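step 4 of 6: structure.
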Amino acid sequence: MMRIYVNGTPHSVEVDPSTPLLWVLRETIGLTGTKYGCGIAACGACTVHVDGQPLRSCITPISSVSGKHITTIEGLSADGSHPVQRAWIAEEVPQCGFCQSGQIMTAVALLEKNPRPSDADIDDAMSGIICRCGTYQRIRRAIRRAVRNMAKEA
Amino acid sequence: MGEMVAIGRRNFLKITAAAGGGLLVGFYLPERASASEPASSDPAAFVPNAWIRVGTDDVVTLMVASSEMGQGVMTAIPMLAADEMDADWSRVRIETAPAARAYFNPLIGQQLTGGSTAVRAFWMPVRQAGAAARAVLLDAAAETWQVPAAECRTENGAVIHPPSGRRLGYGALARRAATLPVPKTVFLKEPSEFRLIGTPVPRVDTHAKVTGKAVFGQDVQLRGMLTALVLRCPVFGGKLAGFEAAAALAVPGVRRVFAIDSGVAVVADGFWPAKVGRDALRVRWEEGALAGLSSALIEQRFQAAARRPGAVARSVGNAGAAEARSARKLDAIYQVPYLAHACMEPMNCTADVRPDGCDIWVPTQAQTGAQQTAVRITGLAEERVRIHTTFLGGGFGRRSEQDFVAEAVQISKAVGAPVKLQWTREDDMRHDFYRPATYNRLSAGIGAHGALQSWRHHIVGPSIFARVFPKSVKNGIDPTSVEGAANLPYAVPNIHVSYVLDDPGVPVGFWRSVGSSQNTFVTECFLDEIAHATGKDPYQLRRSLLKKHPRHLAVLELAASKAGWGSPPPPGRHRGIAVAGSFGSYVAEVAEVSISERGRLRVHRVVCAVDCGMVVNPDTVVAQMESAIVFGLSAALADEITIKDGRVQQSNFDNYPVLRMDNMPEIEVHIVHSAESPGGIGEPGTPPIAPAVANAVFAATGRPVRRLPIRVG
């Protein structure tokens, strides 16, 4: 039995300790906003925050996050009102949308660490997350917009 | 009001009452080009599935029969109906249609999203249905008020009668409207009257996709559902010889292990036990005839096949004779590799097969195909098989296939429970239907004064239609194998395009822009070789040869002008240009590249001009051009499926590297204003990007690029 906190709610989970966090989130807890894309930490669709740090849940055994606080896309806001989500909506970023939870969680982590990223910082942080629809240009724009949103609201 | 359109009897427009007093407008289009089932023109076969539902609560529900895979169709098609019926967009609800004959794509003859056809296929019928709904609602108001219909008009979900200032919402009129006869004619709006069409209406799926709420196939959860993975033979065409299930069954959570047509299914309580169980399986394969296949052997085989004359796809004048008497001759061999689709969401399907029916939740481009697949496996009647289309995490042609549907249905049938079949990324990459590899021999005859006298293009490669629509392969020509080649737009007095169908056995399928994805690379790069050999500017050469193709010419000139063609590029940068018409649209692209001293190729900027006829949603057009360019850039710069020992060597994004943000160029898109009927937008942006980049590399190095992916140095 392991205990994790997901979006502020404690969960006791009884699964094989080698089970990746991704599948505990998706199947045991039922939060399907975090996606399976590659299983080898190569695409970033499974990115969540563990104690505030972005992490690839598809290769993270549940045993290694016991007792930790996990934030998923569902935990960013109840209604899409997080400044990064709002920027994504304003720039009409998603196409198929499958990678966007990972993109948004990565962008949020970037801006929490670095509220005024340069273009190079953005490319650097975001190059780990693949989008086959090619929304990268809009993601760049949305991050710059989120920076402005957050500066205004700070 | 604009154009008056007679509602043909064959359109089967139908107006009925909905439960609870609403209005239903449906139509059924007889197939024009039946690709699968024979067309039924029997009106008795009419299925009254509605396209438009007007509720007494003023909510207008609009159906989308096409799959939303990122291309924005879930927004674009409802815009057509909503505009013609003057609906209040804020009260429009959108539903994904089930599989039914009423939702067939009339250009394809089944319910299938592909070939960039959705807007082209439904542009008229959905607008007509919207106009018919508007007409009966207006008539219902006129009847209610006892005033001439001509004195009434519609606006934002209501009918108004200006002389008396009266107004009734559509909801209040729905019950009466449902009793009125189908109008014999409807008026379609003039483009100047459109309120939604032609405007950047925000996508309806964005909120769900930024909050994690959008349900993709992978996200389907049912009570009592099990998860299955399948171990398939790594060699194409191989068969199961035997397996030892004990180790897999010993994994906690694994329920069943058994053979299905495509391999061995491991059914478990969730993904992880299924995966661990599958890893523990011991299987023997009969690898079969392709066990020795390799990329090198495929190339040799294509070289040999190229000596055969092939079937003639197009012949103008006498290219052979013209070439023989020309002052100069140019020759080149062009080759492209197999490519995987690599949709972000690996293939999956959830099936619940019961004795009395079957429900399937699937991210599919092909609802009719999915339904027929399940009918074949279960023996159930068609109406007992319900298809629930989820969001698609990418499609690109891959999700028009039925392999994953067949597996899920077989497994659910065997275990008697709902089963989610999930492919791993490795399964997805190694068991795809790949973009065909091809081998191309090009030759051109140049006259004494540098004029292009003849063009010969001989294509060798496997055929997609030979498997999917065999009847459409006529006289040895698969139209998809020669598209982008046989329709060469350039004014050359002698043209010969031929095709040798040669299939090494690697499964091939539709990949974004299909034949144009490779043929445009070949033709547009060879044209630059001709420009180079004759000392002409590649852009000016194209202009001189496109005088009879104004739409090609217009996008070419627009892209060149916006890219600054003719002025020197920034230091260290080089430009390349390409143009192509595909799927009813015309796109030109200019790529600006640099090559570092260490040989690193970088694409900095892409300028794109598109003429897709009348535009439904300009922001979607821009997004689809950006998307198609990025998709094509991955293929131009990096992607390649190679074969060794009958197996695909690539397995995941670590060895099939797709474009990431660090290599993302600035893309700018310019839309040509056009009054032509709409063309496709999902695919036409892809064909020109590889040759635009390759031509820029040629400009930089002086060496033509004749093979993809591009290798510099």
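step 5 of 6: annotate
 - Chain A touches chain B through 62 residues (CB under 8 Å).
 - The longest strand of chain A covers residues 2-6.
step 6 of 6: archive
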